[in-house]
Specification:
Helices cover about 45% and strands about 15% of the residues. By secondary structure, the protein is α/β, with parallel strands linked by helices. Strand 4, helix 4 and strand 5 form a beta-alpha-beta unit.
């Protein structure tokens, strides 16, 4: 049995079908009944609903599990505590192997969410559990393309001249499924997951422009504007932790490049990782045909 946390999140929505197709029994941990319904419709029969910060929910989640794939609650003030707790619970429950989704360059501690993941990595390393740690670069996220496709605008909340590396979620979840299918081979490994290329915002805009065969305006927007959009229109003042984390992202990415190397991901996949251009091309084809990004 594999426990997958945040099972209806960015990774979970792509990883669950891969695990089920490979014949793995999956237990999905989600916060809401709405997410549980989505997963049951996708074929998951074992779903735990609730907050893993609650001891009874956590105990139900790890009971009888052999493998854990943990994706922490994004931009949540409880992420560190939940990460520590699930590692401790997994050890107590006799979990065989713990796979953690971390972040590229977790040692970059002026990024709040990186410092949290670094601390969780350290706790995992000290837990006595067999482990694998995945460190993906920034995800290629479809919602960032919607303004480009609909209005010809590509926006980021940091310096347009700084370079960043990214990674396709399909490649990340492909590696996760591979690791969970053969944990002995990947025991003790820490893998940086990075697609080819180190791009400024202007270069990303140029790639999008080439794919859609139309002009793209590249804009730098404020952290507050980005936060409002990311948080679904909620008042950022009510989300102080999230806003503080986003401000740290803006400051770091405006003063330093955030780049990695694709060699490890290339080796793991046995092919060239998905490029940004190929990813945009696939998303644009889906959007043009009336499908979801």
């Amino acid at each position: 049995m594999i426990l997958l946390t945040a099972a209806n999140g960015n990774q979970g929505r792509q990883l669950v079908p891969k695990l089920l197709a490979a014949g793995h029994p999956v237990r999905a941990s989600v916060h809401t009944e709405a997410s549980a319904a989505v997963l049951r419709a996708a074929g998951v029969t074992d779903v735990v609903v609730g907050d893993l910060a609650e001891p009874d929910v956590l105990a139900r989640a790890v009971r009888g599990v052999e493998l854990v794939y943990h994706v922490g609650p994004a931009l949540s003030p409880s992420e560190r505590a939940v990460g520590f707790a699930i590692i401790d619970a997994a050890r107590s429950a006799g979990v065989r192997h713990f796979v953690m989704s971390s972040v590229l360059h977790a040692i970059t501690t002026d990024l709040i969410q990186h410092e949290v993941k670094r601390d969780i990595e350290e706790h995992l390393l000290s837990s006595g559990l067999e482990f694998t740690i995945l460190q993906p670069a920034n995800y290629m996220l479809a919602h960032r393309l919607r303004p480009a496709f609909e209005r010809g605008v590509f926006e980021l909340s940091w310096s347009l001249d700084r370079r960043q590396s990214m990674v396709d979620l399909g490649d990340v979840t492909g590696v996760a499924a591979m690791v969970l299918s053969d944990v002995e081979r990947h025991a003790g490994a820490t893998y940086e997951l990075v697609s080819p290329g180190r791009f400024t915002a202007h270069e990303l805009g140029a790639i999008i422009s080439e794919v859609i065969a139309g002009p793209i305006e590249v804009r730098e927007i404020s952290t507050e504007t980005f936060a409002e959009r990311m948080l679904g229109g909620a008042d950022p003042s009510s989300k102080e932790y999230e806003l503080r984390a986003m401000r740290a992202i803006t400051a770091r990415y405006s003063s330093n490049d955030f780049v990695g190397n694709p060699n490890v991901l290339t080796w793991l996949l046995g092919r060239t990782p998905t490029t940004f251009k190929d990813w945009v091309r696939a998303r644009y084809a889906a959007w043009s045909s009336g499908g979801a990004l």
